[in-house]
Structures are given as structure tokens and as C-alpha cells.
Amino acid sequence: MIPTQGWLRASPDAGGTVLRSEAPRPPHRRGSSPVMVPIRSLGPGHRERIAAHLLRLEPADRYLRFGYAASDEQVQRYVDQLDFVRDEIFGIYNRRLELIAVAHLAYADSPEHQSCAEFGVSVLGQARWRGFGARLFDRAVMHARNQGVSMVFIHALSENTAMLKIARNAGATVRRDGSESEAYLQLPRAGLDTRMAQMVVHQFAEMDYRFKKQARQFWRLLAGLQEVRRGVRDGRHQSAE
Fold first, then answer.
1. Distance between CA 105 and CA 137 in Å, rounded?
2. How far apart are the first and last CA of the chain?
3. Is the pLDDT of residue 21 over 60?
4. pTM metric for this prediction
5. What is the dihedral of CA 225, 226, 227, 228, to 10 degrees?
6. Which residues of 112-144 are buried (b: 16+ CB within 10 A; e: fewer)?
7. pLDDT score at 209
8. Cα radius of gyration (the chain)
9. Which of 18, 131, 161, 162 could form a disulfide with 61 if both were Cys (CB 3.0 to 4.6 A apart)?
């Protein structure tokens, strides 16, 4: 295994994930096919939403994500320092356009490790057990391959069994060192199929986001019209009195 020595952390003193395994996982339906999850690339304009997402994490989830009990100030500092030019950030939105899951694919600064990247993910408690962590990992791996990355690392607390399971299911080698564990996955070279697949999932995510945005605007407009009608109706009643 290539020693990371802390050079590739998605945040200062942290690089773990936030998936937990206290609750039982719903049984898989036989004969069901996996549903395509829209995963969108995030840019500098999404810092506020990323911060809101991370600050909404429960204390135990925040601890697993950062590897320590990060304060609100430390979380905000991490978000402020995100490098959207060097790294890649992915997110999953709900219908209210709230980020319910965020992944960070961080690249090394040193030239000798340019072909390596580290993966970190966070999922809100309300969205857990839907497979979002695994979907984000697959999306990050696809992007990494297309960028010429040959190895992806995961640095997580050893108690974060769900994240380590995702790594093992992907074929990663996991090494435990006390309270912390590291997983590394060697990636094959990208081909036409991976590049085409990335184009498809990107377009799907963009269409899904536009649809949700339009739907949100429509419901806001409808709510405003209802308020106006309610005001007119109340005014009529007051005039009648």
C-alpha cells in the first residue's frame, strides 16, 4: 500500500465519512432494478448550500465525517477552503433543492501523487440507507478514471463500518490501524464507455436539477397566489361586516 501520511485529506485533520450502521437496513426487493440517482457537480456558487448541509449533520455524523468533533467554525473554514478548480465536489438534491448528500474527491498537491485522489462523503440522517454513499462513490470513481487517476483512497474511522463496506464492495483493500482505517482502490484506465457514461449521468443530473428548480418556482408562485386570494377573501368578509 502506498502510505498517504495525511497528505490527502478532504479537510484539515479529517477525511472520513458520515455513513453509520446503527439502524437495520431495509430489505432489498427481489426483481427490482437500481434507480438512477441524479448526482450534480458543484461549484463555488454552492458553498453556502454545502455549508448548510454539513452544519445540519448530527454531532455523531459530523464526528465521522471530519474524524473529530468539528465546531461550526471549523466546518465553515473547511467549506471556505474548498478548491473547486483542483478538486471535484458532487451533490444530491431533494425536491426542495437541499443538499442531502455531498462527496468530495480531493486531489494531491504534490506532483508525485498526481494520479491519486481521496474520497469523502456525508449524508443527512433523513436520507440514510438509500445507497447515496455508494452512488456518490461510483460517480467519483468514474470521474477519477476519466481524469487519469489510478488510485482512490478513503481515510475513515474504523467504527465507520458502512463506509468501509462500500470500499470493500468496490474491491478496495482496507488496512486498519487502531481507531483509523485506510482503503485504497486501484482504477483501470478510462475508455470510451466511461467517458460516455459520465456524459450521460451529467446530462441526467442537470435535467433533474432544472426540473426540480422549475417545480419549486411553480409551487412558490402558487403559494403566493393563494396568499393573495386569501387576502382578497378576508378583505371581502371584513367589508361585509
1. 9
2. 82
3. no
4. 0.67
5. 50
6. ebeebbbbbbbbbeeebbbbbbbbbbbbbbbbb
7. 60
8. 21
9. 18
8, 68 Cβ separation under 8 angstroms: no
CA distances in angstroms from 205 to 8, 34, 77, 118, 196, listed in the order given: 28, 16, 28, 23, 14
3-state secondary structure of 119: strand
53-69 as b/e: b if 16+ CB within 10 A: bbebbeeebbbbbbbbe
User: Is residue 178's pLDDT more than 80?
Assistant: yes
Which distant-in-sequence residues (6+ apart) come within 8 Å of 201 by Cβ? 36, 39, 139, 142
Question: Would you state the cell numbers that stand for residue 220, as one nine-digit string?
Answer: 412558490
Phi, psi of 174 (to 5 degrees): -110, 130
- Please tell me the distance from the alpha carbon of residue 122 to that of residue 77, in angstroms, as a whole number: 17
Place of cell 473554514: 77
Helix 192-240 to helix 132-146 angle (10° resolution) is: 130
Condensed to tens digits (0 to 9), the pLDDT of residues 140-173 reads 998 888 888 888 999 889 999 888 888 899 889 8
